[in-house]
Design a protein that fits this description.
Low-confidence stretches: 305-311
Order of helices and strands: HHHEHEHHEHEEEHHEHEHHEE
Oligomer: single chain
Radius of gyration: 23 Å
Largest sheet: 5 strands, parallel
């Protein structure tokens, strides 16, 4: 038992470096997220509370959801992040969707609980949720319990709870020449003004994610390209990109306001189109990946076949 506990402690020491290898441009956030997670995993969270709670603030496409997914995969394995888009819970009737509207209905929260009794509950764009839904979050943060429409009470203490919000993010463009400390104060003030005080106060960590500059998006593009190459290789398409591919992808996918999300779509589209065209033309899908500047696309060139020397 002691050996298992020691092994888990060593794993927790590796958590921050694991996230740093996968999340770019948010080094100021990751130590604070790690602190919440380490306390939660060591059983240092308050009794009858979630393992930990965070509010991730900042623009779209900067890694808020990716951070939650990354630490959840590290701690629990894949499939343990349960995401709820609060834009779908803007009416009072949506409370029934979350908790079950009739006797016997599980509701989306109950279905997530049934899949795994632990993990991370991610509530995206919390500012869009109806006031009755926010009441449920107060219960979850206060006592880690929620009563379903069926009368069943779910114990959510084995879960981490993460909220995301874009509150104040639009103002960051006007503050782009200010220090990050100034931008952080502004976003936190806006969030505190916009959210119910009792909800804001109950969240353990409020973290502001920064915009992604060109260099960070370049690093993300390389990661996405490597991941897509691995995916295609598993499909039998072995591609070797030349040095022009990555700069071309970044030029097509960089977006100062939308962050890395367009970059992911760009990588998938450009490589997918190149492979599809090659397969339809000659049924191979493998070879040198390069830029067709004339047609503004990526193409696959067949690997050169060395000539045999005749004896």
């Amino acid at each position: 038992m002691k050996a298992d506990a020691r092994s888990n402690d060593i794993k927790l020491l590796e958590l921050e470096s694991y996230m740093r290898a996968r999340i770019r441009g948010q080094d100021h956030v990751l130590p604070r997220v790690t602190s919440v997670l380490q306390r939660g995993e060591l059983g240092l969270a308050k009794p009858n509370r979630p393992r930990g709670s965070c509010l991730f603030l900042g623009p779209t496409g900067v890694g808020k959801t990716e951070t939650a997914l990354t630490f959840t995969d590290f701690l629990f394995g894949p499939g343990k992040l349960f995401r709820f888009d609060m834009s779908e819970y803007q009416t009072q009737e949506s409370l029934g969707v979350l908790l079950g509207g009739k006797l016997g209905e599980r509701g989306t929260l109950g279905l997530a609980f049934d899949k795994a009794g632990f993990g991370t509950l991610l509530f995206d764009e919390i500012e869009k949720a109806h006031a009755r839904v926010l009441d449920i979050f107060l219960q979850i943060l206060d006592a880690a319990r929620v009563t379903m429409a069926s009368g069943e009470t779910l114990d959510l203490s084995p879960f981490y709870v993460v909220f995301t919000s874009n509150i104040g993010a639009a103002d960051l463009l006007n503050l782009q020449h200010s220090t990050f400390a100034t931008m952080e104060r502004h976003v936190l003030t806006r969030a505190q003004q916009a959210m119910r005080p009792e909800l804001f106060a109950r969240i353990a960590e409020k973290l502001v994610f920064n915009r992604l500059d060109y260099d960070h998006q370049l690093e993300i593009a390389q990661m996405l390209l490597n991941a897509e190459l691995d995916f295609l290789r598993a499909k039998g398409c072995d591609l070797q990109p030349d040095s022009a591919v990555l700069p071309f992808i970044v030029r097509r996918g960089f977006h100062p306001k939308l962050g890395a999300r367009p970059m992911r779509d760009t990588v998938e589209k450009l490589l997918g189109d190149a492979v599809a065209a090659d397969v339809l033309a000659r049924g191979d899908g493998s070879g040198k990946l390069t830029v067709d500047a004339e047609r503004n696309r990526l193409i696959v060139l067949p690997n050169s076949v060395p000539q045999r020397l005749t004896p």
